[in-house]
Model the fold of this input.
Amino acid sequence: RDSLKAIAEKVSLKYGVKIDVMLSSGTLVPGDTIIVASASAENREKAFAALREFIEEYKREATHEEEYV
Done:
């Protein structure tokens, strides 16, 4: 979760937007919503660009733990 916050702050500063993130926890199954991110910005283009970069950074940098049952 700290990495999510750091990524959100970095991207927010770059684009001049505010990004809010919620991450699911606990037992998840395929199809469950894992992450919800929103952006407040002057215009849609900035918001979409910031969210796209946020998700790509999250996929690249965040720790993903897989548990097989």
Notes: Residues 44-61 form the longest helix (18 residues).
